[in-house]
Amino acid sequence: MKFASLKEGGRDGRLVLVSRDLTRAVDASDIAPTLLAAVEAWEEVEAELEQRYQALNRGELDSAFAFAPERTLAPLPRTWQWLDGSLFLSHGERMQKAFNLDPIDGADRIPLAYQGAGDDFIGPRDPVALPSEADGIDFEGEFAVIVDEVPLGCTAAAALAHVRLIVQLNDVSLRALAPREMVTGFGFVQAKPSSAFAPVAVTPDELGDAWRDGRVQLPLQVEWNGERFGNPFAGEMHFGFHQLIEHCARTRRLSAGSLLGSGTVSNANPDVGAACISERRAVEMIEFGEPRTSYMRFGDRVRMEVLGPDGGSIFGAIDQQIVQAGGTS
Amino acid sequence: MKFASLKEGGRDGRLVLVSRDLTRAVDASDIAPTLLAAVEAWEEVEAELEQRYQALNRGELDSAFAFAPERTLAPLPRTWQWLDGSLFLSHGERMQKAFNLDPIDGADRIPLAYQGAGDDFIGPRDPVALPSEADGIDFEGEFAVIVDEVPLGCTAAAALAHVRLIVQLNDVSLRALAPREMVTGFGFVQAKPSSAFAPVAVTPDELGDAWRDGRVQLPLQVEWNGERFGNPFAGEMHFGFHQLIEHCARTRRLSAGSLLGSGTVSNANPDVGAACISERRAVEMIEFGEPRTSYMRFGDRVRMEVLGPDGGSIFGAIDQQIVQAGGTS
């Protein structure tokens, strides 16, 4: 199934089902008013949602309407918890090499994750409003899973059964603010403002064979101001999402609707490009002794999309502009 | 006003008003079903809630019933965002001195804060279930404020007007897991499981003169297994809550219902005791060259309470046991 949250439903959106090819949608708010409500009552609502989704795909629903991504909020506009990993080791290793950072002991055995702001996500076509270009505005293309309630002590072996939905996001990052926050040991607050999400959340079966080993086995296409920036393969993720879930549930249960992220997609092969500017800058640092690419300016655009084996868009595209908060772009 | 959330209302509780002396309660769920809903619609519901609260205190409501803290969830059982500061500098300084940690540059000018888990708070009399004593189980007595929506870029001068409620909490901490998480720079995930809260949330006016300069100007009484552990004065907080709000809203807005915490209450004078075991251990380290107090064992209890100038309990007491998750205490 594919889900979106229409803006007319208020802060949490109005739940709709979206056809597999992303052309049509149908209201689902009579089954569950919001996507969060659907995840919280998944066992009770799944069958009815699935039935309507199949009818939508067969073109049988007179109530269906054209799907317009610009009318959507993030599929999950806000949620109880956002835990973002850094599961692609080549990203961290490149950063360490470029900027002479100490390697993190056990980084290949213990998933790295921080708790982020889940209270106010941004829609796929909406502007990202930020206070200052001097903060080092960057995008991060990544994936995340939405789980139902995960008990304390859930093992990796049991974790994938809790994955109800997969989403694709732009984890907006402010690079000038990150180093000090990391030195404190307390993690990111100012350096990680609200994230933006691709139009639809999908159930794992929508990925077919491309959902395997707790990983999205597809490339993520990233463009910056209309030019290709990278298309790294997400299957290269060192840890599977099941391992991240086990890590985060080690000392507490995770409420239904919790969102767990992969961190920026990154490959060992630099020829595929990157899913964030800071990684390109690290490659430049290693190659030229200096970073040559500047961070984003107000007015810049970023676009992200994932195509399936048949060439169709899976999550729809993020396509958004960076603007000055309280001002004009 | 004083609010609690009764357990019979499901995961988010059923909103009740509680009398100033904490003896009586009356349903308020017809005005706002939950405390989160009340905070999200504060301007619309405040007058009606206030009217009923005054009638409750005058003993005029036939529908009032005896207030029982063991029937309550945390006043805000879960919320969109939990940002916990470390606003008492004597705590960090003592830790640094005892364990030879590097001081954090600018710690007296920039509030320290991490993003915590806000998805699953624990009630005031409910057990805290954790997987292992070897994790170094500790309590942290602290305060937090609940805000309405705070715009991006909110200044400290404008921030206190967004404080709708004040709460008192036990920020459960797992000390053996914290050092590695701090070294990664990503902050706490496993080391900060779910926190527990005193029975009622109060509006700032309930504190009278004891709410001043964005600080709770009262001591916090902490007992461990029935013995006094400390009663540090919370007015010694180096930063006010308004400064923490400004810090956290620097690059993003904070949704209504966001919770911002003080960190463990701590005083420069060690004679007042501490609000967490790790601080007592630091004092012992400085005095004896070794920590002599062990962390909590399953079956241990912790109690926290704040008395007003008239000797009455302001938030009600946290009084809870640590138990083994999935097992018996």
Automatic annotation (TrEMBL), chains A, B:
GO terms for molecular function: catalytic activity. It holds the Pfam family FAA_hydro_N_2. SUPFAM superfamilies: FAH (SSF56529). Residues 1-78 form the Fumarylacetoacetase N-terminal domain. Residues 88-321 form the Fumarylacetoacetase-like C-terminal domain. This is 2-keto-4-pentenoate hydratase. InterPro entries: FAA_hydro_N, Fumarylacetoacetase-like_C, Fumarylacetoacetase_C_sf. It comes from Marinobacterium nitratireducens.
